[in-house]
Specification:
Layout (H helix, E strand, L loop, with lengths): L3 H15 L8 H12 L4 H11 L13 H4 L7 H7 L16 H4 L6 H13 L5 H19 L16 E4 L2 E4 H11 L5 H9 L16 H13 L8 E2 L1 H29 L4
Helix pairs in contact: 1-7, 1-12, 2-8, 2-10, 2-12, 7-8, 7-11, 8-12
Length: about 270
C-alpha cells in the first residue's frame, strides 16, 4: 500500500488527468464551491459523503464548508485553530509565482501541502469516521481557499489584508473585498449563486503543468498570477472594477467546485 501522503498525491494528480484542458472566500463563496462539488459527486462519493455528514446531522457540504474558519471563535477548538491557521493560504516569495516548497511553504505549513495531507486521511478507511469527517471539512475548505487569489499572493501585504481600499462608500481592505464583497454584489444566496454558475456547465480547466508533483501547487500558482492584476489603481473599488473582476472570481469558484468534486470522487470511490 502506498504511504498516505504518496497516495494523496496520486489522487490529486488523477484529478488533472481526468480534466485536461482545464479565510479565502467568506461563507458565501465556500458554500458555493461546496454546492458546485456536491452537484457532481459520483454515486459512491455521494453515499460516503452522506455517511460522514450524518455525524454532523447534515447532508450538505455547504454546511461544513466554513467550519475551518469558524473554529477560530470556538474556545474548545483553539488548539486546532492554532495548529491549522497557517494552512488556509500560501505566501509566494516571488512574483514569478513558481512554487518552491522550502521558500514558499516553510515546514509544510501552507494550503498547498495541507490539501494532500487531508485527502490522504479522508481516503483512508482505517481512520475513524470522526477523523475522516474532520478531514473532509478541511479538504472542502482548503480547496476553496487556494482558489481565492489573495490566499496565494506574493506581495508583502498579508494577502491584501493591509491594502486599504474604498468599496461601496466604506473603507475596507482588498482581501475582504475578494473574500465576500465582490461576490455579494450579485445579491444571491449560496444556493442561487451555485445554480447560476452550474448552469454555465463544467469550468474549463488548464492542462497540468509539469513537473509539479502536487496539483494543488498549480492551483495556487494560478491564484498567484491572478493577483498581479487585481490591485485597483487609486485604492478604489468602483463598478468598472466589479464588472472586470467578478467574472474572474466566478471562474475561480467554478474551477474550485469542479476540482473538489473530482478529488472527492476519486478519494471516496472505494466503499
Amino acid at each position: 500500500m502506498l504511504p498516505l501522503r504518496r497516495a494523496a498525491t496520486v489522487l490529486l494528480s488523477a484529478t488533472l488527468v481526468i480534466a485536461p484542458a482545464a479565510q479565502a472566500w467568506g461563507p458565501l463563496g465556500h458554500s458555493v464551491v461546496a454546492e458546485l462539488a456536491q452537484r457532481h459527486l459520483s454515486p459512491a462519493a455521494e453515499k460516503e459523503v452522506e455517511h460522514l455528514l450524518a455525524l454532523d446531522h447534515t447532508q450538505s457540504l455547504a454546511d461544513i464548508a466554513s467550519w475551518p474558519d469558524e473554529i477560530r471563535n470556538d474556545p474548545r477548538q483553539q488548539a486546532l485553530w492554532k495548529e491549522t491557521r497557517a494552512l488556509h493560504y500560501i505566501d509566494f516569495r516571488s512574483p514569478d509565482c513558481i512554487y518552491t516548497p522550502p521558500r514558499d511553504c516553510r515546514g509544510g505549513k501552507c494550503a498547498v501541502e495541507a490539501i494532500p495531507h487531508y485527502i490522504a486521511i479522508l481516503s483512508d478507511r482505517s481512520q475513524s469516521d470522526q477523523t475522516r469527517l474532520q478531514a473532509l471539512k478541511f479538504v472542502v475548505h482548503f480547496i476553496g481557499d487556494v482558489h481565492q487569489p489573495l490566499h496565494a499572493g506574493y506581495k508583502d501585504d498579508a494577502g491584501g489584508n493591509t491594502y486599504q481600499v474604498q468599496f461601496e462608500g466604506k473603507g475596507t481592505n482588498l482581501h475582504r473585498v475578494w473574500d465576500s464583497g465582490l461576490l455579494g454584489t450579485r445579491g444571491l444566496d449560496w444556493k442561487a449563486y451555485a445554480a447560476l454558475l452550474d448552469s454555465e456547465g463544467f469550468a474549463p480547466l488548464p492542462p497540468p503543468i509539469a513537473p509539479l508533483e502536487n496539483p494543488a501547487a498549480q492551483w495556487a500558482e494560478e491564484s498567484c498570477r491572478i493577483t498581479r492584476d487585481i490591485y485597483p489603481s487609486g485604492h478604489t473599488i468602483d463598478q468598472r472594477y466589479v464588472n472586470a473582476e467578478l467574472p474572474t472570481a466566478d471562474m475561480r469558484l467554478r474551477e474550485a467546485g469542479r476540482r473538489l468534486a473530482e478529488v472527492l470522487n476519486i478519494a471516496l470511490q472505494n466503499g
